[in-house]
Amino acid sequence: MNALMDMKMFLSFLVTGNVVMVFLIGAYLWRHRDDDTLNTFFYGKCLQTIAWIIAIFRGGAFDLIAVSLANSLLFIGYTFEVLALLKLARSYHRSTRNLYLWFSVLYILSFHIILFFFNQAHIRIAFASVALVVILVLPVWRMTRGKQHSLLMHSMGYLYFILLLGLVARTIVALVINPSTDLDSNAASFAYGFSFIMINMTMILGGTGFILLLKEMTDKELVHLANYDDLTKTLNRRAFFAQTEYYLNYYAKKKQKLSFLLFDVDSFKCINDTHGHDIGDRVLRDLSRRIYNQIEPDHLFSRFGGDEFAILMPGMDEEASALLAERIRNEVAQAQIFLPNQPLKYTISIGLLTILPDQFTDIETLYISCDNALYGAKRNGKNGVYRGHYQEELKAEL
C-alpha cells in the first residue's frame, strides 16, 4: 500500500469519526438548541468534517482550490472547538473571541500567501501546525491550571497538551523533509501518518471528554439550582439544614462551639405594600450582598423563605458571634435603596444562639430556640440583637 493510500485511509478514519460525532451531537441539539457551548463545539466539528472530506478527494486540476478550502475550514473548525473549550473552562470573554477571530483571518491570509507563492508541502504543514499550537496554548493552560477544576477538566487539558506536543513534532519533522519530496516518500509518509494518528486519537478522546465535561458542568448547575435561592444567591432551607447537620456532628466531636443567627427585615410587609414587590426584591438582594461581605467563607448563609434568613457560624463563641451579629446589624442599618422620590432605609432584627453541640443536639430545636430569640429582638423594639438559649425541653414538643 503506497503512502497516498495510507493518507486516504487515515482521512477516512477521521471523516467517519467526525461524522458519527456530528450526527450524535446534532441529534442531541435537536431538543437542546439553547446550549451555546455545545453549539460552538458542534459547528467546529461540522467544519472539520467538511474539511477532511475535501482533503480525501483533493488532487487533479482543482487541487489548489481543495487545499485552500480544506485548510481554511479546518482552522476555523479548530478555532470553534478551542472557543468551546474556553467556555467550559470559564475563560471565554468577548476580547478572547475577537482575538481568535483576527488570528483566524491572519492565518487564512498567510496560508494563502504560502499556497500561491511558496507552494511546498513541508512549508504548509509546518505553518499550519504552528498556527494550531498557538490557538491551543490558552485552553491547555486554562484547563490544566486552577485548583477549582475537576480531575476530568485537568485530564482533558493534558490530552490537548499531548496533541500540542504532537503538532510541535509534526512541525519539526516537516521542516527537515527535503523540499523536493512528495507524498510518496517515506519521510513525508511518516510525517503525515504521525500527525493524523495524533489528530484521530484527539478527535475520539477529545470529543468524548468534551461531552463528559459538558455533562459535569450541567450537573454542577443543577446542583446549584437545587441548593441555592435564585434571588439572593444564598442556600435554600433544605441545603442549609443538610450542611448544618454535618457541622453539628463535626463540632460535637471537636467539642467546640458554634453559633446560629436568625434574622428578618423589620416591617418587610410594609415595604412590599408601599413600594411594590420589585423594591422588596431589591432590598433582599442588597441585604444578602452586604451580609456576604461580612461573613467568613466557611459560614453558611441561607434564605429560609420570604425575608427570613439564617447564618451558621462554625467555631464562633459568644463573644465572637456577638461582635459579628452587631457588625451585620450596623452594616444593614446604614443601607439605602435609591428610589425616584427618596432613599429607602431598612433594618433587621437578629436572634442569636451559641451552643456546644453534642450527639443529642437537634437542628429543629436549635432553629426554634433561635426563632424565639428573634421574637425577643422584635419585642425590644427591632433593629437589634437578642441572645437566646438552646432549650432542650422543646424536643418533646416536636
List the helices and strands and how they pair.
Elements: H1 3-29, H2 36-56, H3 63-88, H4 94-117, H5 121-144, H6 151-176, H7 186-227, H8 237-254, E1 258-265, H9 268-275, H10 277-292, E2 300-305, E3 308-314, H11 318-333, E4 336-337, E5 344-345, E6 348-355, H12 363-379, E7 385-387
Parallel strand pairs: 6-7
Antiparallel strand pairs: 1-3, 1-6, 2-3, 4-5
Overall residue-averaged pLDDT value: 85
Per the CATH scheme, the topology name of the largest domain is: Rhopdopsin 7-helix transmembrane proteins
Portion in helices: 55-70%
**β-strand amount:** 5-15%
Tell me what the CATH architecture of the largest domain is: Up-down Bundle
Strand order of the largest sheet: 2-3-1-6-7
Give the beta-strand count: 7
Computed over alpha carbons, the radius of gyration is 31 Å
- Quickly give the structural class: alpha+beta
InterPro entries: Diguanylate_Cyclase, GGDEF_dom, Nucleotide_cyclase, Rev_trsase/Diguanyl_cyclase
Keywords: Membrane, Nucleotidyltransferase, Transferase, Transmembrane, Transmembrane helix
EC number: 2.7.7.65
Protein name: Diguanylate cyclase
